[in-house]
Design a protein that fits this description.
eight-stranded mixed barrel, Sortase, Chain: A, two-stranded antiparallel sheet, 238 residues
Length: 238
C-alpha cells in the first residue's frame, strides 16, 4: 500500500507450531497489514484522521473490555474435543450481532501478512490461513478491522463480548464449530503476551483480534489490541 495505513491493520508478532501446511511469516506494516516477527507483540494499526473524525462526529466509540470479562486464557473444558481439518467459510458472534464470511489471507509478495482491504472488505473478517483451521488442536486466528472511513467495521463491538458467549465458525465441510469465550482482554502494545495469544495449544483454541485502546495520531496506531480467547465446546452439522 503506497500510503500510510488507513485503519486497524495488525502488527502481529507470534510463533506457530511446526506444520508443513502452516508456516510462520513476517507480516505487514502498510495500510492494514501485519508483520509477524517473533514474540514481540501486536498492535492493530489505523490510519488517519478521516476514520477517527468520522467516529467522533458520530459519537461512536468501540466498547472497551470490562475488567470482569478478563476471564482466563485456557480452555472452557478439558474434553479434548477436536475436529478434522476443514477451512472456515464464515463466522457468527450472536451476542454482538456479527455475521461475516471469512476471507483466507496469507502473505503479500514481500512476505507480509494480508488483511482485509480497507475500502472494500472492512466489514469482512479474515482467517489467517497459516494458523490451524478452527476446531483442530492448536491455535486458530481470526482478525478484522474495528473501524473504517465510513465508521464501525466488522469487529467494532468485539470488546463487548463476555465469557460464556459463543463464537460459531462454519467450515467448508458443513460443520459449524462452536467456541465458548473464556476471556476478553485488552493489551497494550508494549505488554502484549504473544506467546500466550499465539503459542501452541494442546486443545482446539480460537483467538479473535482487533485493535483497541487509545489512538495515537502521531504514530497513527491504536495503542492496544482486543483479544478474545475461546475454545471448542461442540459442533453442529448442517
Amino acid at each position: 500500500m503506497a500510503r500510510e495505513p488507513r485503519i486497524a491493520g495488525l502488527r502481529v508478532v507470534m510463533s506457530w507450531p511446526q506444520d508443513s501446511r502452516f508456516t510462520p511469516q513476517s507480516p505487514p506494516r502498510g495500510r492494514g497489514r501485519i508483520r509477524l516477527t517473533g514474540f514481540a507483540g501486536v498492535s492493530l494499526i489505523t490510519t488517519g484522521a478521516a476514520a477517527i473524525i468520522a467516529a467522533v462526529l458520530a459519537q461512536q466509540h468501540a466498547p472497551t473490555p470490562a475488567a470482569s470479562a478478563a476471564g482466563n486464557t485456557g480452555p472452557a473444558s478439558a474434553s479434548g474435543l477436536a475436529l478434522r481439518q476443514s477451512p472456515p467459510v464464515s463466522v457468527a458472534i450472536p451476542a454482538i450481532g456479527v455475521r461475516s464470511s471469512l476471507l483466507r489471507l496469507g502473505r503479500n509478495a514481500d512476505g507480509t501478512m494480508q488483511v482485509p482491504n480497507l475500502n472494500t472488505q472492512a466489514n469482512e473478517a479474515a482467517w489467517y490461513k497459516y494458523s490451524v483451521t478452527p476446531g483442530k488442536i492448536g491455535t486458530a486466528v481470526i482478525e478484522g478491522h474495528v473501524d473504517s472511513y465510513r465508521g464501525p467495521a466488522v469487529f467494532f463491538r468485539l470488546g463487548a463480548l463476555r465469557p460464556g458467549e459463543h463464537i460459531d465458525v462454519t467450515l467448508a465441510d458443513g460443520i459449524t464449530a462452536v467456541f465458548r469465550v473464556t476471556g476478553v482482554r485488552e493489551y497494550t502494545k508494549d505488554n502484549y503476551p504473544a506467546n500466550i495469544v499465539y503459542g501452541p495449544s494442546d486443545y482446539a483454541a480460537l483467538r479473535v483480534i482487533t485493535c483497541g485502546g487509545a489512538f495515537d495520531p502521531a504514530t497513527r496506531h491504536y495503542l492496544s489490541s482486543v483479544v478474545i480467547f475461546a475454545s471448542l465446546v461442540s459442533s453442529v452439522r448442517g
